Every structure is written in C-alpha cells, then in structure tokens.
C-alpha cells in the first residue's frame, strides 16, 4: 500500500533533514517530492497553495498540508510515539524544547535563503551574516548544555530527542560556512555521536537522491 504521506523537501534544507530523520526513526514511510530552493520552486503558485510561506518542509497527510518543522515533529511524536523523541518528565521536555527552539526559532530563520538574500548583497556579506547568527545560536546551545547538567551521549541524557534533530543539521550548516565547531566542544561531541547513528546517516543530505557533490 502506498504511504499516505508526502514530504515536500529540499535535499540540503536543515528543516527537511530533521523531518526525514524523525520519519526514519519512527519507521513512518513517506514519498519525497523535491522542491528546488535554488530554482525558486518554493515560490511557484502551485507550491504556495500547499504552503503559503514558500518554505520546506511541508507534509501532506490525508487531511491536508502542514508546514513548520516543529509542528510536524510534535505531530509525529503524538501520532507515532515510539521511539520517543521527547523525554518523560515535564522539566526535561521543557529543556529539550528550549534547546530545539534556540536553533529552530532563534537561529535558522536568520540564515535561510530569503532572509540572507534580503539582508546582504554579496556572497562575502551573506557568509559573514550567517556566521554571526550561527555563532550566537551555538554559543547559547553550548552554554545551556553546560549549565543545565542534563546532557549525556546526546543533548538530553542518552536518548536522541528533538534537540539533536535540530542540532545536527545546524552543525552541518555551520561547517559549510567555515565555523570551527571546536569552539563548542560539548555540542560538537553530541554532533559527532549523533551523526554516526543509522537514521541520521540515512537522512543526511549527502545521501539524498538530489544531492549535488
Ligand atoms: N520555521 C520553518 C522554517 C522553514 C524554512 O525556512 N525552510 C527553508 C529551508 S531550511 C526554506 O524553505 N527556505 C526557502 C527560502 O528561504 O526561500 C520550519 O521550521 O519549518
């Protein structure tokens, strides 16, 4: 039986990566439709009918089209609870959401294509802009990991969570703009360990059929 879910995504999009990864972790089959951001397909009128914000990811379910990767993660967690990507106790859940949103809401929006192109005209200017905001997000994340005493193998103890699904794609983007992750040893360790996990590898942009070398 074909999957009832279609994921509209772009191979290198960090927000798409975390949803691919969550779908794989939870063994939820889906069909991928590639929206080429560099060809501006996200702003095609047909796609804007599915997601008026002109961004990926967008998940099509039998009841409609849904965007915002955090909303999709929350829905997946409710609909497919195992394996859990949020811890059990409310304080740890708040901590995980805090970490996730530090990157997803506080950092990623400043580095996306439309924000960057609007803010800066030259490639050098765009790189400097990205580095500035990514450093700020990673500095906050590292400080939270150290001050809250809840991290372990991964951002929250030894289980992968929403936080790691945001951290790994953010680190990948940081490396692409020349940020040295050695400046953030705790999160870098978590990044390296999470990167080795099977579902993360399978969801990795480099493994995507549309990846460009
Ligand atoms: N808050 C949204 C952000 C979505 C977003 O910005 N996606 C990027 C790719 S990671 C995008 O589609 N950018 C297209 C553009 O900026 O034109 C989410 O978490 O899903």
Looking at this protein, list some descriptive labels.
single chain; 213 residues; alpha+beta; Glutaredoxin; Glutathione S-transferase Yfyf (Class Pi), Chain A, domain 2; 2 domains; 10 helices; 8% strand; globular
What does this structure look like?
Helix content is 53%, strand content 8%. With 213 residues, it is α+β, with helices and mostly antiparallel strands. It folds into two domains: 6-82, Glutaredoxin; 90-199, Glutathione S-transferase Yfyf (Class Pi), Chain A, domain 2, CATH 1.20.1050.10. Strands 2-1-3-4 form a four-stranded mixed sheet, covered by helices on one side. It is globular, with a radius of gyration of 17 Å. Residues 13-15, 37, 42, 54-57, 67-70, 104, 112-114 line the site of glutathione.
Question: How would you briefly describe this protein structure?
Answer:
This protein has helices spanning 14-25, 45-50, 69-79, 90-104, 108-111, 113-119, 123-148, 162-176, 185-195, 198-203, and strands at 6-9, 31-34, 58-61, 64-67. The chain has 213 residues and is of the alpha+beta class. The mean pLDDT is 97.
